[in-house]
Amino acid sequence: MRTVRTLLEGVIDYAGLFPPAGLDMAAAVANYASYRSGETRWMLGRFVVPAARLDEFARAAAPCLAEGGGPWRLTALSGPDPKEDLARIAEFNRRHRGRAAVEAVEAKAPGGAELAARVPASPDPLETYVEVPAAADPGEAVAAIARAGARPKLRTGGITPDAFPPADRVVRFMRACLAAAVPFKATAGLHHAVTGSYPLTYEPESPRAPMFGFLNLLLAAAWARQGSDDGEVRAVLEETSPGGFRFTDGRVGWRGRWLAEAEVGRTRRELAVGFGSCSFVEPVDELRALGLL
After folding, report:
1. Do 127 and 107 form a contact (C-beta atoms < 8 A)?
2. How many domains does the chain have?
3. How far apart are CA 286 and CA 251, in angstroms?
């Protein structure tokens, strides 16, 4: 369906190196290479790698990069020294031009502020994301990030129950992004299509906790952008029934309320641009199970 594609085009940045998957570089690279050639490659975004491991990535990916199929698109995570990381990125992009490119860089506060200040002077035009803590009111931080020409990032989960922010904090973050007219990225805990209680890791005896669905997150952003009140946006985010959402070729619905495909597309461009996930297969499999692929 056209609306599904509009909602999910290039939406998943693959972060297989990170928990709970925690793959080694060779396995993560092999996975990404296979996803690039699969029938759901249209959903695939960038490969996420720490800037400090770019050389390791280059060694592991060398055979794949030589095969063609277009350059690999990367997101680099910056550490405690943004200046050094930007130099690494510039050198990587110079050496691998035409085969791989770091297109985006991400950092946590407080280093994110320094990163955002340095990127405009770097030799590569990089999308810059600065992680904003969910606990405090994000309005001032999001506005400052936007003024610096960067974008905010929200952590929506992890491998422990306390890593998941309450829904009202996610809504508050979306409101701050709307007020600052800046798009955001989410990361962590978004393996599942629809909100529910799921295992936190892939261990057999893993504890379970409520986790946000990526459909919920993206559609909550769409309804927030359309002017729905906080209560309604939160209800979309917390919807646990797959039957609560309906997709057609021209619109998407939730509990009898509808948005046109064009509005969904604007949300993806202007507000919720994507999310990081350590699994690409899990989201795809769940969408297939729901009959959306």
Report:
1. no
2. 1
3. 21
